[in-house]
Specification:
The longest helix is centred in the N-terminal third of the chain and has 31 residues, at 13-43. The chain is 72% helix and 0% strand. It is built from 16 helices and no strands. It is globular. The chain has 405 residues and is an all-alpha fold. It has two domains: 5-267, no CATH class; 283-392. α4 packs antiparallel against α5 (119-140), α11 (283-303) packs across α15 and α13 (321-340) packs antiparallel against α14 (344-362). The protein starts with a helix and ends in a 7-residue tail after the last helix.
């Protein structure tokens, strides 16, 4: 007969300490949300502030409930005795969850006015950066746990749901992009349904691409929450992040449902071929297209700096000639770095800014669509073969180095 949960806690000093820590964490969460309500009530309006509080409490309650139910998993991945403290990594993961709950609170309200409109973006971006820090801290302090891994993955799914939901609610993305946030939950439901039906469910093998794809998608959602972005540029950008995410989930579903054998020679050959094509060879013509497009457009734009200043000012950007020259310089340097394969993903990210301002001010022309598509392809795929230096690969792979907290 299973031991009652209360009795199990009483007999395990580690669980006693973990539940005491959980209660402190819950108290701090309540204080943070109350402070958020009071600040928003002053800076915004009472009704949306109340709505924000209700939704943030709901999201935080879901996270705290998940954490409490899984405290018994606070063991190292290889097993062993239960650890009596959550560790720095899981503490940072909990902070990430609180920030995501704050972002979720802005759902179903009009975008806040003025500088307050940037608050969801700042909260979501900070949460995304903490997703790298929690794993680093867990590895640095040698406090990797099953609980930390489970909690981290749970917040990955919740973050995608909140981020995509708010981007769609604000009109930055069309409704089909809700699939970004729903994919993880639908995947889990599918596994549960197969188990309930008595059908076989295979375990997912380790993957070097699963977490980097999720990280890039979260980065895109962060940009999608900027108050100044809007379709069609965001829709085009979204395709470059939605496609690999759904492909990754589709592949994983074929594996867990038994349709693919990840250890079979045919699957290994196909995966090796696809990986080589996507990460080594396809980026080469993409780089060439990007460099040629920038080289063809920059001379004419340099001659028309005064015209560009007028266009930007008409669109509401207080730019002068110096600002426009700086944007053109960023564009030229980024294209050169991408062409040479030097920190290509970073350069492609920087190139988004001058491209974005140009599209926001004058609308997206055919040449802008080509250049933006090539640039986003580099963000996702990298610069491929014959690259001089790709430091971003190490950063992206860091998210796959093991569980957090």
């Amino acid at each position: 007969m299973a031991e009652p949960a209360a009795l199990a806690i009483e007999r395990d000093p580690a669980l006693v300490r973990l539940h005491a820590t959980w209660r402190k964490l819950a108290g701090l969460t309540i204080m943070a949300l109350l402070s958020g309500f009071l600040l928003l009530q002053e800076a915004w309006e009472p009704d949306p502030a109340m709505r924000w509080t209700a939704l943030a409490v709901l999201a935080s309650g879901y996270q705290l409930g998940f954490l409490q139910r899984n405290l018994a998993k606070n063991r190292r991945p290889e097993g062993g005795p239960r650890l009596s403290n959550l560790g720095a990594g899981t503490a940072v993961t909990a902070l990430r969850g609180l920030l995501l709950a704050g972002v979720g609170g802005f759902l179903f309200s009009a975008r806040p006015p003025g500088g307050l409109a940037w608050v969801p973006t700042v909260l979501f971006t900070t949460a995304e950066l903490l997703d790298y820090l929690d794993g680093y801290l867990a590895r640095k302090t040698r406090h990797l746990t099953q609980l930390g891994e489970a909690f981290d993955l749970e917040l990955d799914n919740l973050g995608m749901l909140i981020g995509s939901g708010l981007a769609v609610w604000y009109g930055s993305l069309p409704a089909p992009f809700l699939s970004i946030g729903l994919a993880g939950y639908l995947f889990r439901f599918g596994r549960w349904a197969r188990q309930r039906a008595g059908r076989p469910v295979r375990e997912l093998p380790p993957s070097r691409s699963r977490r980097p794809i999720a990280g890039l998608t979260m980065g895109f959602l962060s940009a999608g929450l900027w108050p100044i972005v809007r379709p069609p540029a965001t829709t085009l950008a979204g395709i470059f992040f939605l496609a690999p995410l759904l492909t990754s989930f589709g592949r994983d579903w074929l594996v867990v449902s038994g349709r693919f054998d990840p250890n079979g020679p045919a699957y290994r050959r196909a995966r090796s071929w696809a990986r080589s094509a996507l990460l080594n060879w396809i980026p080469i013509p993409v780089r060439a297209i990007l460099v040629l497009e920038v080289a063809a457009s920059l001379p004419g734009r340099v001659e028309r700096i005064a015209v560009e200043v007028a266009v930007f000012r008409a669109a509401g950007f207080p730019f002068d000639a110096g600002t426009v020259r700086l944007l053109l310089l960023i564009e030229a340097v980024a294209a050169l770095l991408i062409g040479l394969g030097i920190a290509g993903r970073t350069a492609a990210f920087l190139l988004v800014f001058p491209l974005g301002f140009t599209i926001l001010a004058g609308g997206m022309q055919a040449s802008d669509a080509v250049l933006l598509s090539a640039d986003l392809a580099v963000v996702v795929l990298g610069t491929g073969a014959f690259s001089i230096w790709e430091p971003e690969v190490r950063l992206l792979m860091a998210r796959t180095a093991g569980p957090t907290g």
